[in-house]
Amino acid sequence: MRPIDREKPYQRLPSTTSALRQRVSPCLERLQVEFAAHMPYARAVELLNEVLPLEDCISVSGTKNRVRAVAAQLEEAVADAVAALPTPTLPATSAKSVSLLAIDSVWLRHCRPGRMHQRQVSIATARATLGDGSNRVCGYVTKQVARSSKRMDAFLSRLGVQPHERVTAIADAAVEFETAIAESPYTGLRIIDWFHIAMKFRAAEQSAFGARDQPWTWIEPKAIELRLQRAKWRLWNGRSASAIEAIASLVQIIETLEDEPSSTLIRNLEKLQSYLESNQRYMINYGQRYRAGLPISSAPAESAVNELVSVRMAKRQQMRWSDEGAHALVQVRAALLNGELQARRQPAPWYRRAAVSAWTFDEHLEPLAA
Fold it and tell me: Which of 60, 106, 273, 281 could form a disulfide with 369 if both were Cys (CB 3.0 to 4.6 A apart)?
């Protein structure tokens, strides 16, 4: 059999079994995967057929299969990296190669209809800020990963974090830490994002001024605002226990003095109190850290969610996903954004996956090619 010329995007190879069995060169497979990582599968196939002389030799289902095949290879590399992780050592020092690990999560609509219409696909994302100012991203569907902490450790180790080094992690809620790095020895200080704390206080302050026009309200909104500002000041300076007590006492005062307290105000104050209590162990002296020029916001994680997931898989596109398909595409997009997506030497043939499983494909609202 004559060898494959990698300079040509598509070749028909002789076959003794079936004339329909075809292989594509690595460069065409990479083009399919890259286009599919940036736009819907059907649009990627349409555009490739327009710009390349393929004569409709690629299909939507084939492109999806190739994305999953490349993602499977990336998963094998992650498994090898997890197996090769060195044992963390003490004493621990701050990492030099990675200055910050920002973690966030996003939910996508699941493709299963019927009784499972409320099911969603949970995707965890992280952005690592390197010492030189550059960034690297990673992501995964939580149900598709057995040990997310090991996966995150392998991600940090690949970026140069040594066994005796620890990375500071920031998230907007404790559940993000429990999901991603609960047992990660490569992460040290874990911080709750200050921006989300400030937004909780802001909601309570707006509720206080929204209730000032009620006829039964005689508590001055300025007094409530002053108490909230004092609680926020304590929290900013590392006195989280005192701040929680101040908010709890404010709720008791309002319920005692008001015959018909504002339901919105009480609800927002209780949400604020519950949020602070559940995340108290991850609260620090934000003022001291801010004055030292260290990050206190998970904004890098928010941008990672937008860049890695939302732009392709959610925004302005009515898409629904399976856990397997979303996980595969996230792996491909992460490798592409990190500049690590390489062409495979032996691409999978298009006929490897049976066409009868087409109904399980991710974007089932997209028309499937014949």
Answer: 60
